[in-house]
Amino acid sequence: MQGDGSFHDWLEGRGPRGCLMDMVDDATSQTQARMGKEETIWAAANVLQAWIGKYGVPRALYTDWKNVYKRKATPAEQLQGKVPVTQFGRMCQKLGIRIIAASSPQAKGRVERTHGVHQDRLIKKLRRKKIASYEAANEYLEKQYLPEHNRRFVRVAAKAENYHGRKPTARERREIFRLETERRISNDWVIRHEGRYLQLKPGQQRYGPTQSKARVCEWEDGTMEVYYRGERIAFAELKEPIQKPPQLLPPAARAIVVRKPKKDHPWRQGWQKMRPWFSNQAIAAPLVGIRTYASP
């Protein structure tokens, strides 16, 4: 399979500019497409789900070097020998799909040529239908445009064998097509995620999770679940984190108050003006138990 996004003024001013996500079978030119605002993780996941629902799980996906699909390792990951995986890449790993990144547009020429066909034919058809939104465009793509396009442009494969894998069940799709992020748990069972504070509620009394991590799972509709050690754990969102009194915090966590000297403070003056101040401190030192040293 070849996959890519095409940014264009598909609705010709009747609606916002968007991105048409294309997937093309390299063997038959069979095409699946969906329109959205940007080439995001969910846009790529939705067009892949649509393809899987019709034909099954492909063996490999040929894309470009965008962070949605594949990214290069950071220096820290290179030192640790870790292979970087994006959220979409993790979804494909669970499905057994290999992602191959192309180094040039010509390398995935089939999907690039399909973009040209859509920019010629699809725009005119959307104009005649007076379609002005992504939702209406996707409904038209699924019911009319793609069936007609595939009937006209699909070719017979060189070999009759179909290497698509089985379609995952609804439960499996829910466990695959989601965002997963690890977050560190504080000693009071609070995690911070995307600027939000989540108070975890373990089912039984446990000691504080020292340096432990929780896995936050999110779906496109905004549903969120948190897992700790493989078990789903309840949580409640806090409006703001609970601030403990300083005396209850460990010394390393207590706030350090930094007082800046005033403009007329002797420290801001030259050393000549500081001598009287040192003399006064030397006189007052025995009264407060401060150890002093004689100045030259």
List the helices and strands and how they pair.
Elements: E1 2-8, E2 18-24, E3 31-36, H1 41-55, E4 60-64, H2 75-80, H3 87-95, E5 98-102, H4 109-129, H5 134-153, H6 170-176, E6 179-184, E7 190-193, E8 196-201, E9 213-218, E10 224-228, E11 231-238, H7 271-288
Characterise this structure.
With 296 residues, this protein is an alpha+beta fold. The longest helix is centred in the middle third of the chain and has 21 residues, at 109-129. 32% of the residues lie in helices and 22% in strands. The strands form three sheets. The protein has a six-stranded antiparallel sheet with strand order 6-9-10-11-8-7, with no helix packed on it. It has a three-stranded antiparallel sheet with strand order 1-2-3, with helices on both faces. It contains seven helices and eleven strands.
Overall SS class: alpha+beta
Tally of contiguous helical segments: 7
Total strands:
11
Mean pLDDT across the residues is 84
Sheet-strand content, in percent, reads 15-25%
Largest sheet: 6 strands, antiparallel
